[in-house]
Amino acid sequence: MEIKLSNTLIEKVPGFKVGVIQYNNIEIGESPQMLRGRLQLFQESIHFDLQDKNITDFDGIKEWRQVFKTVGTDPSRYRPSIEALYRRIKKHTYLQPVHSGVDLNNFFSLEYQVPIGLYDLDALEGDILITIGDKNAHYEGLNGRNVTFSNSIVSLDNQGAFGSPYVDSVRTKVTETTKNALQIVYLKPSTDLDNAERLLSSLQQMFNQIHGGEGKALVIA
Fold first, then answer.
1. How far apart (Å, rounded) are the C-alpha atoms in residues 85 and 109?
2. What rounded mean pLDDT belongs to the chain?
């Protein structure tokens, strides 16, 4: 499987990059108490910070809103997924445990203020292109809506659109039966290569610690 960025996206957003991690032979299940506890405590810390700060004061959220604007997406209508998480926490609607894959994804997304997608690798077909979509790029989102990605960042495989930094698809969602997964970390364009690699290493290490299996990480720019 080859994963690449479109020239259109790179030209529109200089410095755009993603981190990808491929996992094999993993076991998804109930999150360990360690992860559930850390996720809860971190949300409480963010909620406390939001008493004195606006959501858009957070560097990651601010940068991702600008990326959305640059490619033609209205970030007040279609919010980056990380902003949506912070808004939930501000309202004291904390994220509840789903399963170990989703919970770990949410934890790292909150910590690094970036959207992160987690996809069932066996539901993907062929190579992957991350690009700016058109009216033909659409799918049933995990938010229960049919979402179209015209002038929005979207990930495509041979079957069509499946993921984005806004909301991911039902088609490729990870469940407790998933054995192989692909993680796409939609890095901040301002993140340098060394920091990007450290982020991926930390994420992969914890993911494999919880889920077993093997992982292979790569930054694509």
1. 9
2. 96
